């Protein structure tokens, strides 16, 4: 009887380790609250409706790329080419709207908005497939393969216009392309269309990650590629999917930016890959693969987006903004590593307790 009485406080008492683990797992959400609260007081007009709308559009762009990046990193890879894919896809959209496709002999094919978006997305998926081909068939390391396609895609974007901007992408009502600008500037029920697109893509990605065999295969490949292959997982197909999905997300961003600006420039998307990686890592995605959540990544994208816009509204130098983002990335990785070590230590302690 006395032993049960003594054991009861230990069973029902406050567990410091468990509380610390909860805080570590919720670090991204806590960071979001702190960053939002800070800029709500420090930045003028931060809470205005106009600023919230603009900021939500900026967050959506980063979130699209971060969702695709999460799949890639969880599978054990990296995609440095997404920013260049954004620029290339924007230029493809501009080319199709302004010029169509010249077949020669005076024949030119013009496209409506749906067809333009379809072709642009096809370009993004194709570049993603090229990344996967280099990695799976030619055994090129993901870092080198995607670094190479970063330069190829950016160079192709530059060549498409000799480095010039495609302006006035208002489209032509006669060809059905006049609605292109609504993708970035339009809204539905007062919410920007890009946010609705993010909701659809985010829910689809979360469903794939958590509710489908493909999602389990992605985590398995990132956790232990050789073991996954021996258990029957088609590793190469999984890698094709994650890189093609990343290219798809980058193509959406290229379309949205071209639509918002009603113009496309080949330099669009530079360093976007860094923000995507930062959002994914900040959201709990492990750079060693095998671990990450879409919901956490989206929260991480909000943190990065609010941090960027808030610093701009406070008049902080762009140079210092870069430094601060770098510190955030380093801190996120350090905390992630600390969480993994802490979880391992708790697991060993639990095993030791069971052994006794």
SSE layout and pairing:
Layout lengths: L1 H11 L3 H10 L1 H16 L6 H26 L7 H17 L2 E4 L2 E3 L3 H24 L5 H20 L20 H4 L1 E2 L2 E2 H19 L1 H11 L1 H6 L4 H27 L10 H11 L11 H20 L4 H38 L1
Antiparallel strand pairs: 1-2, 3-4
GO molecular function, one term: transmembrane transporter activity
Main location: membrane
Keywords: Cell inner membrane, Cell membrane, Membrane, Transmembrane, Transmembrane helix, Transport
Descriptive report:
One of its GO terms (cellular component) is plasma membrane. It is a multi-pass membrane protein. It is found in: Cell membrane. Pfam families: BPD_transp_2. With 356 residues, the chain is mainly α. It contains 15 helices and four strands. It has helices at residues 2-12, 16-25, 27-42, 49-74, 82-98, 113-136, 142-161, 182-185, 193-211, 213-223, 225-230, 235-261, 272-282, 294-313, 318-355, and strands at 101-104, 107-109, 187-188, 191-192. β3 and β4 form a beta hairpin. α2 runs antiparallel to α15.
Short description:
With 356 residues, this protein is mainly alpha-helical. It has helices at 2-12, 16-25, 27-42, 49-74, 82-98, 113-136, 142-161, 182-185, 193-211, 213-223, 225-230, 235-261, 272-282, 294-313, 318-355; strands at residues 101-104, 107-109, 187-188, 191-192. 73% of the residues lie in helices and 3% in strands.
